[in-house]
Write a structure and sequence with these properties.
The chain is mainly α. The chain is 57% helix and 3% strand. The protein has 16 helices and two strands. Helix 4 packs across helix 10 and helix 4 crosses helix 15.
């Protein structure tokens, strides 16, 4: 007699036995999983092909617009991709029934480095620990004082802070962790009052590191005692960090690679330092203003400056130079790389330029009334 678990006699008639093949649950589930996985794989591959073609076209048209701008040629509506990025709408990826129970329903997500990682890397690679402010107002006063000295208006700085840091964000606020909540996770390395990425920190140090060191030396010269000693002690570590950031060509892609290394993460800890962090963040905005002025766009309002902060100087200027009629037609995806766009729900939700600009202004209006934004405004020198 056969004793396989998937075979059982269900009825016996004299002279005749009826054998029914029954599927064991795990075996059936495995078969269903393989079928579902094949369907998902085919659908996902089709989506990836369409998506790749779409984002490649965006990059191609962006390069063409850069060349037109360089040659003082007019940019027209056909120089933009006018369709929205494709969205995957196929079947979800099935769960493997043979996977350990603890893995089912918990898809792995890549770890995004957080403040603890930046601090640990800074200590390990540069023997550096940022001097944290005694309280939030100390950092706000340092930031406001530098911004005012650089010619940035209180209105612009406060509105950008309101948008980027939520109107109440602290000096160490990170994207995705603005509100304390169980299970909250960082979505990027964007950090601080105007949410610099780790790549931004490396680029700024590579390009303006000498300027930052000179600023610290000048500040230390006006101090005495322990305050002078503490400030001077930062300078050797900062010099090492500058050399490290200059160890690769001065290109975003190279800075991005460096930012993904443990030593690269260490650079981002500078945002937390009450002396260096404001220098970096103010310089990022000043560079955007200078870039716009060099390209003939002398007057930026807060929303326009934020677009340059959000998407990068070239993409931001490209966006705000659009004529009003084109802003209603051109998708915001033209000014992002795929990863940045997909991580930015505001840009994806407000998916044409006019809507994104209006939504940004509305958020600034609302969140400028929060206490953190009002404290930053009050920190500006009269």
């Amino acid at each position: 007699m056969m004793h396989h678990a998937w075979m059982r006699r269900v009825r016996s008639i004299p002279g005749l036995s009826v054998l029914v093949v029954a599927c064991v649950p795990l075996a059936c589930a495995a078969g269903d999983y393989q079928r579902d996985l094949e369907e998902y794989t085919v659908a996902r591959q089709r989506y990836e092909e369409v998506s790749e073609a779409h984002w490649n076209l965006i990059a191609e048209k962006r390069r063409a617009r850069i060349a037109k701008h360089r040659n003082n040629e007019a940019v027209v509506i056909d120089d933009y991709v006018l369709t929205q990025p494709p969205v995957y709408s196929g079947p979800p990826k099935p769960m493997n029934p043979a996977a350990p129970a603890e893995e089912i329903g918990t898809p792995a997500t890549p770890h995004v480095p957080v403040v603890a990682d930046f601090l640990r890397s800074a200590a390990e690679h540069f023997n550096f620990a940022p001097q944290r402010p005694q309280d939030e107002m100390e950092y706000k006063r340092a930031y406001a004082r530098l911004a005012a000295a650089a010619g940035l208006t209180k209105e612009k700085v406060v509105r950008i802070y309101a948008f980027e840091a939520g109107g109440n964000g602290t000096y160490d606020v990170q994207a995705g962790l603005e509100q304390p909540a169980p299970g909250a996770q960082a979505v990027s390395t964007a950090l601080g009052y105007n949410q610099l990425l780790a790549t931004n920190s490396i680029g700024l140090l590579a390009e303006k590191g000498g300027q930052f060191i000179a600023s610290l030396r000048a500040k230390a010269a006006a101090l005495s005692g322990e305050a002078k000693a503490v400030l001077e002690a930062k300078i050797p570590a900062l010099e090492q960090m500058v050399d490290f950031c200059r160890s690769v060509p001065d290109r975003w892609s190279e800075h991005q690679k460096l930012a993904s290394t443990p030593a690269g993460l260490a650079i981002h800890a500078l945002i937390l330092d009450v002396d260096v962090g404001p220098l970096l963040q103010v310089q990022k905005l000043v560079d955007s203003v200078s870039f716009a002025r060099e390209h003939g766009y002398a007057q930026l309002d807060a929303v326009e400056l934020e677009m340059m902060n959000l998407t990068g100087d070239g993409n931001g200027l490209d966006m705000i130079m659009l004529p009003l009629t084109m802003r209603e037609q051109v998708p915001t995806s033209n000014f992002f790389h795929q990863g940045g766009y997909e991580r930015n729900p505001v840009a994806a939700r407000n998916n044409v330029v006019a809507q994104l600009l209006a939504a940004t202004a509305a958020v600034m209006d609302e969140q400028s009334q929060l206490q953190g934004a009002m404290d930053l405004a009050a920190a500006f020198p009269n």
